[in-house]
Write a structure and sequence with these properties.
The protein is an alpha+beta fold. It is built from 12 helices and 9 strands. It has 2 domains: 2-81, no CATH class; 104-337, BirA Bifunctional Protein, domain 2. Strands 1-4-5-9-8-7-6 form a 7-stranded mixed β-sheet, sandwiched between helices. The structure holds phenylalanine.
C-alpha cells in the first residue's frame, strides 16, 4: 500500500489539465466517492494497527497533495479562460463610425466667398470685438442713430469710443480702407451680433458676407453687375435681380437687392409671399463722407459696398424657415446636410 501511495504522489505532481472540465474529471478520479484516494482510505481501515501510524501519515500527505494540485489546476484553467472571453466575443455588435458633416452655414458662406473670389475679390477678416469708431463712427452713423442704442448693440464698455460686439462686418471694410493700398476689392465673411430676441426670424448671432470695391471711376453699373453675376452663380443662370431704393448711413445712393424666386420661378409662392421676389442683400455707392473719414480722396476715388446675411441665403437655398435650427446643433437637422459637400 505504501508503494501504491508513493507512486500516486509522483503521478499527481506531474498532472496537467486543459480547461475546467478536465480539472473536474481529475478531481472525481482522485477524490470522488469512488476516487483512488477515497478508496485508499477505505483500505486503510483494514490495515494492521502497527502499520496505521506510518501509513496514515503518507495517506494524509497524498490527500493534501491531491487537493492542492486540483486547486492549482483550477486556478490556472480559470486564468487562461478569462482573456479569451473578454477579448474575443465575436457576438458583440461592432462600433458604429459616425460620419461628420460641414455645417450648412459654413457651406453657404464658403460658396458665397468662392463666387466672389472668382470675380477677383480677396478675403479680409477683422475682430468681432470692435470699437464704436469702426462699427459706427467712421461709417457716418449720427450719434443719435438707433443702432447705437443698448437695445440693438451689445456694449462691453461705455464712454468716448465704447467697445462693443460688431453688428456688421462693415467694420472690416473700415479697417481695410485704413490699412490697404488702393484699389481695394475685398469680401468680408464673419460672425456678427445684435441684441435681438431669439425667434424663428431673428437671432442675436448670425453671419454676414460684405463686399467693398474702391477704385477710380467705379459706378453704380459696376455694382449692379457684381450683384447680378453673384445671383446667377448662387441661384442659377436664369436668376433676375431688381434693385429697390433704400437707405444706409454709409452708402448713397443705397438699394435693397431682390432675386427672382427660384422656387416658383416668379409665379408667386409662400416662400416669396406671392411676390415672385426674394430679398437677398443691401448695397450702395460708398458715401463720399465715409471715404473722407477713412483718408481716401473722394474726388479721385469712388466705390460700392454690399452686404448679405448668410443665414438668409441658406434659408432660401434649403427652405429652412426657422433660423434657430442653424444654431441649436441638433444632430438630426445637421445630418440632412451630409450629402451637400
Ligand atoms: N452693413 C449693412 C447691414 O449690416 C449691409 C450693407 C453693407 C448695406 C454694405 C449696404 C452696403 O445691414
Amino acid at each position: 500500500m505504501k508503494e501504491k501511495i508513493e507512486k500516486l504522489l509522483t503521478q499527481i505532481e506531474s498532472l496537467k489539465a486543459q480547461g475546467e472540465q478536465e480539472v473536474e474529471e481529475i478531481r472525481i478520479k482522485l477524490l470522488g466517492k469512488k476516487g483512488v484516494v477515497t478508496q485508499l482510505f477505505e483500505e486503510f481501515r483494514e490495515v494492521l494497527p502497527e502499520q496505521k501510524r506510518e501509513l496514515g501519515q503518507v495517506l494524509n500527505k497524498l490527500k493534501v497533495a491531491a487537493t492542492q494540485k486540483i486547486e492549482e489546476l483550477k486556478e490556472s484553467a480559470q486564468a487562461n479562460m478569462q482573456p479569451t472571453h473578454s477579448l474575443y466575443d465575436l457576438t458583440k455588435p461592432g462600433d458604429v463610425v459616425e460620419l461628420g458633416a460641414r455645417h450648412p452655414i459654413s457651406v453657404t458662406m464658403d460658396q458665397i466667398v468662392s463666387i466672389y473670389n472668382k470675380f477677383g475679390y480677396t478675403v479680409a477678416k477683422g475682430p468681432e470685438i470692435e470699437d464704436d469708431w469702426h462699427v459706427f463712427g467712421s461709417l457716418n452713423f449720427p450719434p443719435e442713430h438707433p443702432a447705437r442704442d443698448m437695445q440693438d448693440t451689445f456694449f462691453i464698455t461705455h464712454g468716448e469710443n465704447p467697445v462693443l460686439l460688431r453688428t456688421h462686418t462693415s467694420s472690416v471694410q473700415v479697417r481695410a480702407m485704413e490699412n490697404m493700398p488702393l484699389p481695394i476689392r475685398i469680401i468680408c465673411p464673419g460672425r456678427v451680433f445684435r441684441n435681438e430676441a431669439i425667434s424663428a426670424r431673428a437671432h442675436c448671432i448670425f453671419h454676414q458676407v460684405e463686399g467693398l470695391y474702391i477704385d477710380k471711376d467705379v459706378s453704380f453699373a459696376d455694382l449692379k453687375q457684381a450683384v447680378l453675376l453673384f445671383a446667377r452663380e448662387m441661384f442659377g443662370s436664369n436668376a433676375q435681380i431688381r434693385l429697390r431704393p433704400s437707405y444706409f448711413p454709409f452708402t448713397e445712393p443705397s438699394a435693397e437687392v431682390d432675386v427672382s424666386c427660384n422656387i416658383c420661378k416668379g409665379a408667386g409662392c409662400n416662400v416669396c409671399k406671392g411676390t415672385g421676389w426674394l430679398e437677398i442683400m443691401g448695397c450702395g455707392m460708398v458715401d463720399p463722407a465715409v471715404l473722407e473719414a477713412n483718408g481716401i480722396d473722394s474726388k479721385v476715388y469712388s466705390g460700392f459696398a454690399f452686404g448679405m446675411g448668410v443665414e438668409r441665403i441658406a434659408m432660401l437655398k434649403w427652405q429652412v424657415k426657422d433660423l434657430r435650427h442653424y444654431f441649436e446643433n441638433d444632430i438630426r437637422f445637421l445630418k440632412q446636410f451630409q450629402t451637400v459637400i
